[in-house]
Amino acid sequence: MYKIFLFLLFPVFLSAQTNVVKGSVTDAGNGKVSSADITVYNLKNELIKTLKTDENGHFSLEGIAVDSIKIAVKKADYAPFERIVGLQKEKELLKIILKKETQEIEAVVMTKQKPVVTRKVDRLEFNVENSNISSLNAWEILKKTPNVTINNDVIAVKGGTGILVTINDKKVMLTGEELKNFLENTQGDEIKSVEVITNPPAKYEASGSAVLNIIIKKNKIEGYRGIVSSKYVQTQYAKGVAGISQYYKKDKLSLMGSYYRGFGTYYREGTDYVNYQESQTRWVSTMNRKDKNNAQNTVNFNAEYEIDSLTNLSLNYSGYFSPKSFGTCVVPTLIYNSQNIIESDYTTINDHQSRTINNSLSFQIDRKLNKKSSLSWISYFTGNNVDKYQNVLTHLNFAGQTPKDDNFFTQNKADVKLYSTQADYQWKGEKVELESGAKYSFVKTKSGLDFSDNENGNLQLRPEKSSIFDYKEHNFAVYSSLAYHLGKWNFKGGLRAEMTDLEGVVSEPYEQNKNNYWSLFPTFYAQYTTENKHEFGFSYGKRISRPSYSWLNPAKSYYNLFSYYQGDPKLKATIIHNLNLTYSWKGWNLDLYYRKEIYPSMEISYQEPSTNNLIYYFTNIEKGQAFGASLYKSFQIKPWWTLILSENLEHNENYFKGTDDLLYKNKVWNWVSNISTAFTLDKSSDWKIEAGHKYYSPGIQGTFTISSAWSAYFVMNRKFFRKKLEASLIFNDIFRTMGQKVSTKYANQDNYFLDYSDDRSFTLSLKFNFGNQSVKNARTIKKTDEQDRL
């Protein structure tokens, strides 16, 4: 009976047989290439198995249960090889020919190793994995990313500010100095790529003029491995970062954890000049600010688990803790009369400290519904807490008055909590792709300012100068987008609808601001590729830039007796229209763009003659618009020599109302040039050097006119001990030329400040790899019951 049963099942066994492919690897001269690494993937780019060629250059692929595969072959001194293979068609011996990649020049072996720029229909991808700049931190990598500029620590994309920074598509709830510190402590060797999304598709929240998405690498190596790293930075004063990253992958579980601790002294110098026409006086203040921070802690943890072949779970936590940043700065101010003679002076002694805590936790589920569709759900929580304290003592020596001292204290606390949940559905056919989803987020902030001064030797709280600001914002969004592939054409369009419900309450003087509105945000993309691989693209997107929560706080944060910062709870959201025309061919990337901003919000300054106050505040100007062109090209001059050219030319206009209630126009042609060259001196030790130069021509920001600046840098990397130890030397702002002048001059406003952020630095970094550093013992991925049901 069992023989009959086996006979009946024989066709089933026959149909379930796996494919066998045999092949050989040779060089261009038909020489046998032994011990070449062969990696096999399915068409979803999922790893199937790895193996090596034998001494005769032969290999055999067995147990392959799919009809088509992608085979990749790598061997030292040869260019990588990739090919899609249809197993039903490959009945004969598969012959692979590898081409030589390196050449010897004056006994120095060199090879190419550069970041790769890829133009996609809706974004520009800057792949930095294993490149010359992967030894830098995330902040420095952003400075080298195409279309991105960082000037005075403000991130801009094609001149537009208000950038949304995300890591693996999750919003980073940090701004200003906290965001910079976080990115400086994010190591470049953990970064796979940076996506520059000028017109983000409907899937992304509409906030921000553009999105910079930093993609962190996933662990694909079986077993355990780790990285110990340290970095010493010498600017005016010393800084350092040390930490460890650990990875573990076994079967369905993948874990990653890292901890970095930074410390050091931060220095900034500047001089303020204020000219008062009414009193014919000139006020000059000189500041040399030195802050110490002995503990900047950055923690990351990620766990991924494959429940079955259709369902993946991931849990991610990231934290940034800076328990104490502190310093004391002495700021002398000289007051000159119309004869340029010093008639008065005062000196401010500012003793300050701050604390920052940021926590982010996310949970994600991805589920394949069938062969064409999938569903994902992600929820995340972010909390940001900042506490700033300052004790300000002022020695006053004004003409005609008795010299005296003034003393005040302020404590500013801010707590931000964000909860977000989002569900996304994706359907992908041969020519059509559909994405749709919904998102809800809730933000709650509470800011408090306590102002006290010294009265007859006693500390007195001043309620009229203190304030509590509470802010709540609910945001609900639905979106849908459709992509269509038609031969040489790619189209994508989407629509996002967002409902915003906000409420802001100020305690002193009491004020309540409520608003509820719906907004529609359309996006459209088109891309055409010719037979010669010329790519032409067009895109349009409407965005909204909501003000940062700290900008909404109206409490006066005093720098000294005569200068303070103030937010505005009635700040309007900025509506942005982006229009782009793109062209790409053989590494050339050209982008022509136009940007229109309605009520852009920004920090500006104005002087108040009646009180001699210099006030910095966030406000909406009337409008802004810009048009320009950006160009990026990486030249492979020699196999060992690469030249990278990144240029951006823009005409920018800002319209604002002055203190006299008249409309003013600030305009400029702005040019940002970044030229770098890289050499690989020795392939066996990955010995590379890179030198570059960045130039900023004069720019504008509302009432501000910003002077030109330039910077030169040098980077050298080398690996030792079978590439387990990596050392890097980095010189930034070699000639100390990044100082800038920021001025305001119209009507009765005449002030400027000179600023230098201590950019000149020397950095020595060391990184040691231990544990398993290569893919080994990869097993054939077999179809599971769940996949069979798809």
TrEMBL record:
It is found in: Cell outer membrane. Keywords: Cell outer membrane, Membrane, Receptor, Signal. Residues 370-767 form the Outer membrane protein beta-barrel domain. Gene3D superfamilies: Carboxypeptidase-like, regulatory domain (2.60.40.1120), TonB-dependent receptor, beta-barrel domain (2.40.170.20). Its main location: membrane. Pfam families: CarboxypepD_reg, OMP_b-brl_3. Residues 1-18 form the signal peptide. SUPFAM superfamilies: Carboxypeptidase regulatory domain-like, Porins. This is TonB-dependent receptor.
